[in-house]
Amino acid sequence: MKTYRIGVIPGDGIGPEVVREGLKVLGAVATVEGFALDLTEYPYSGAHYLETGELVPPQVIDEWRQLDAIYLGAIGHPDVEPGLVERSVILGLRFGLDLYINLRPIRLYAEHLCPLKGKTPADVDLVVVRENTEGMYTQIGGIFKKGTADEIAVVEGLYTRKGTERAIRYAFELARRRAAQRGSAGRPARVTMVDKANAIRPQDIWTRTFAEVGAEYPDVEQEHAYVDAACMWLVKNPEWFDVVVTANLFGDILTDLGAAIQGGMGIAASGNIHPGKTSMFEPIHGSAPKYAGRNVACPLGAIAAAAMMLETLGETVAAARIERAIERLLTSGRIPSVDAHSGLSTSCVGDMVTEEVLKTEVLAI
Ligand code: IPM
Ligand code: MG
Q1: Residue 9 maps to a domain
Q2: Percentage of the chain exceeding pLDDT 70
Q3: Close Cβ partners of 77 (under 8 Å, ≥ 6 residues apart)
Q4: Given 241, 261, 281, which residue is the final one in a domain?
Q5: Pair 235, 268 in one domain
Q6: Contact, 75 vs 105, CB < 8 A?
Q7: Structural domain containing residue 58
Q8: Domain membership flag for residue 40
Q9: Cys-Cys crosslink for 319: which of 20, 62, 77, 310, Cβ 3.0 to 4.6 Å?
């Protein structure tokens, strides 16, 4: 039997609660699809740092490279300096494992979840390909004369040809795959590149690389939007988008907006991917300390992230089972909302998805 070695980082706040439900669902699909999961849990989190002073040691990053995938809940603790543990765990993984794609599907599973007037699941079905190792996130920069009247803060935005090109190429390949899945009756493949090259001229590297790589994909429609306009279009005409490719920080911002139009942070999932190597999967929400330990957080984002993990590992039927189960539970209203106020506990939602993935008719996609 195929066995996947998965590193599990439950993390802080609601992280352990939603990861527990994700693992429950994973266990169920593994049994029915005939594969096994060999789980190794890692304690790194804000809470662990407060207890032990420990962040992620370098040798653990090396250990992670040997795994098939990593599943993460959420990192962030109110008593720890902002960003310290996030940089160690989340950015440590992204940079350490060179997870250069942050893949964020924005899919409306059920019309009633959408805050936009008159938009249906057919209108909100896009994927953001966020460059995940460069831009404003590289930690290049610093603060000089801190706390004085002459204080200077510098942060560099870094874009390499290699980093830009591999993100753009991934987006084109993804657009082709999505169009092939939709079939000839579906809408054609389209990639929209989002930047701010009018104000930030060095982002012209994105403009030129997009044009050069795009020439190899004449079958894919190619559009461009400045990031401010892209925010506006995402609210006004989300159906305009298929695959979006953008720099790290813009992708971070656009995908919280994206989560809102797909129903909320409780349903949004992401994959931090290096194709062919160990990748990391997480819900896009944070640790939500105010809901921690109350068994009320929505685990669907974490469960959908587990489905993305299986898809990337090649377990496409298992992944489809989970996706379909989530869709059925939401469209039927059995799970009425994707926030902490659905009236259903975290563990109850996990149980419902677990039960639903086992139903054979789930395969009738
Ligand atoms: C995300 C988060 C992270 C990011 C934080 C926690 C560092 O907001 O995954 O979107 O900015 O990338
Ligand atoms: Mg974010």
Answers
A1: yes
A2: 99
A3: 12, 13, 45, 46, 47, 49, 50, 85, 287, 289
A4: 261
A5: no
A6: no
A7: 1-106+263-365
A8: yes
A9: 310
